[in-house]
Amino acid sequence: MGFRSVLFEQPQDNAGQIAEEPEFFADLNLDQVLAAMTAGREEYELDTFFYSPMHDPDVVRYRHEVLRDLEKPEVLEVVRAFSEAMRRTREQLALSRKAHYELQQQSWFVDAVEIYCGAVRILASELAECDLASQGMLGLRDYLREYVESASFTLLFAETEAVKKAVAGIRYRLRIQGPRVTVSRYEDDEDYSVELLETFARFRQGGVTRYLVELPDQMEMNHVEARILELVAQLHADAFTERAECCARHRQFLDQTITRFDREVQFYIAYLGVIGCLKAAGLSFCYPRVSAHSKEIAAAETFDIALATKLIQEGRGVVCNEFHLRGPERMFVVSGPNNGGKTTFARMFGQLHHLAGLGLPVPGREVRLLLPDRIYTHFEREEQIETLRGKLDDELVRVHGILERATSRSVIVMNESFNSTTLNDALFVGSEVMRRILGLGCVGVYVTFVDEIASFGEATVSMVSEVLQENPAQRTFRVLRRPADGLAYAWAIAEKYGLTYQRLMERIGA
Questions:
Q1: Could you give the residue ranges of the DSSP H alpha helices within 205-341?
Q2: Which residues make up the CATH 3.40.50.300 domain(s) of the chain?
C-alpha cells in the first residue's frame, strides 16, 4: 500500500505548508477566489492547500494528471458520491459524541461505521471500472482494492453488519398502564392492530378526518425512551453486549489515507466548480507548461479569474489579454489611461503564477510560466497613522523589504507605486527600483504613470492599455505590447473636446 496522497507525490512534497494567508493575496484578489472555492466546504480547511504553491514541476505535473482524471464525468460523479457518504459518516460520529445516553451513542456509532464501509466498498468497486491514467488515482485504486480485501476491513464490515442485524431483529412487548411502563420479551404474541384496522376499514366512506398525533422526531432520546431502551438491552443482553464490544474494538475505524483523500480531493473539486461557470461562458482554461528556471513565459486569451467570476455573475462580457517574454526580457511596464485595465493585467499576471504553482488549470488557451519561489506585490495602501510614516516613506519601506527578500526566481508585481510624489521624484525612485529588480533577474509587472520607465532597456517590455481611436475616452480594457504614448492619449482627448492649443486660440480669436 504505497499510495499516500493525490496532492503530493512524495511525503517531502508536503513540507513547508503555509498556514496563514500570504501578503499578496488581497492585492491579487486571490482571497476572493479562495472564498468562492471554500463556500460550503469549510469543514475541509482547504485554505492551507490554496496558500501553498509547489516549486517543483514534477509535483505540478502530478496534480495535472489527477485533475485530468477528475475532469472525466464518470470519475467525478463517483468521487462526489463518496465525499457525500463521508460527510454523512462524520455527521453520525458527531451525533454519537454529543448523545447523552450510551446506548444511543453506540447506535449512531455503528450507523457511522456502516455508512463508511459502504462508501469505501462502492468507491473501490466503481473506480475499478473507471478509465484512470494518473499516478495518483491509480495509486488510490490499488490502495482501496488492498484495503477492502484486508483482514482489518473485512472484520470491521462483518462485525458491523452482524451487530446491526442482531439489534434490528429484536422485538419486545410494551405495556403502558397509566404512568407505569412494562417492558417484556415478545413471545409471538398476536398483533391485534392489523385485525383492528381491517375490521374498521369496511366502515370507511370517502375522505375521513385524521386524528393521529404527529410526534416530533427528536434526535436525542428523552428519559422515558432511554429507560425503555435500557430494559430492552437487559432482556437481550447478548446482542447489546456484542454491539458495545464492537464499538470499543473499532473506535478508530477511519483509515487515515482514505480520510486524507476525502479532504484533499475537495481542493480539486472546489476549483473545478469555480471555473466550471467560466468555462460554460466560453472562457478558456488550460494546464500550463511550467519551468523552475526558464523565464520565457507567455499566455494567450488569459484573464483575471476573480474579476471574470464577478462579470459573468452580472451577465457582462470578459476581455481577454495576452503577453510574452522572450530572450533577455524580464519586466512588463504597463502604462496608459486610468481605468483602462492596467491593474487588472497586473493582478492577472500574479494570479497565473500562483495558480500554476498550485498545479491547477489557469485562465487562457495556451500558457507557459515560471514556477516562482515567491510572489511579491506592491499595491497602494492607505496611510497608517500608527507607523508615524508618510505615504511615500511607507512605500519605500515596503519596497525595500521586497528587494531584500526577492531572488532571481521571484515574481514581482508593482502597481501604481509612488503616485503620492511628484513626477520627477516618481521617475527617480521608480528608475532606481527598476534597476534593482532587473539586477535580481526577477520577472514581473510594473504599472506606472511614468512613461520613461517603459523604455528601460531590452529587459523591459512596454505594454499600453488601449482606447478606441475614434473615442479616446472609451477603454477597450485590452493591454497591448507597444511603446508608451501617454501624450498621444492626452492629445486625442484634448482634440475630442476641442481643448487643443489651436482650437482654443481659434475660439479666443472668434
A1: 223-235, 237-249, 256-280, 305-313
A2: 283-509
Cβ–Cβ < 8 Å for 121, 94: no
Q: Decide if pLDDT at 462 tops 50.
A: yes
Average confidence (pLDDT) over 297-301: 97
Identify the CATH class of 283-509. Answer: alpha beta
d(CA 419, CA 144): 59
d(CA 199, CA 278): 64
How far apart are the two ends of the chain, measured CA to CA in Å? 92
- List the one residue out of 240, 444, 463 whose CA is nearest residue 353: 444
- Cell 484573464, residue located: 303
Give the pLDDT score at 388: 44
Those residues with Cβ within 8 angstroms of residue 30's Cβ, 6 or more apart along the chain or in another chain: 24, 50, 306, 350, 351, 354
CA-closest candidate to residue 342, choices 368, 319, 325: 319
Q: Are strands 375-378 and 366-370 parallel, antiparallel or unpaired?
A: unpaired
Average pLDDT value for residue range 156-168? 96
Going by C-alpha positions, the residue among 381, 100, 146 that lies closest to residue 255 is 146
Are 293 and 408 contacting, i.e. CB atoms less than 8 angstroms apart? no
* The predicted structure's pLDDT at residue 393: 80
Q: Which residues contact 28 (CB under 8 A, 6 or more apart)?
A: 347, 350, 351, 354, 375, 377, 413
pLDDT in tens, 341-360: 999 999 999 999 999 999 99
Q: How far apart are CA 448 and CA 226, in angstroms?
A: 73
| Measured distance CA(182)–CA(504) in Å, rounded | 106
Contacts of 240 (CB under 8 A, 6+ apart): 103, 167, 233
pLDDT digits (tens, 9 = 90+) for 203-231: 776 666 777 777 666 778 888 889 999 99
CA 159 → CA 110, 111, 129, 275, distances in Å? 10, 12, 28, 44
HSE (CB half, 13 Å, CA atoms) of 32?
13
Which residues, in sequence order, are CB contacts of 326 under 8 Å at separation 6+?
A: 296
The pLDDT assigned to 220 comes to: 82
Confidence of residue 194 (pLDDT cuts 50, 70, 90): confident
CB-side neighbour CA atoms (13 Å) of 170: 22
Question: What sign does the dihedral 213-218-223-229 (CA atoms) show?
Answer: positive
The Cα diameter of the chain in Å comes to 118
Which residues are 443's β-sheet partners?
411
Residues 113 and 156: their CA atoms lie apart, in Å, by 8
- Residue 495's pLDDT is 61
Half-sphere exposure of 467 (CA within 13 A, CB side): 21
Grid coordinates belonging to 144:
482501496
pTM of the model: 0.86
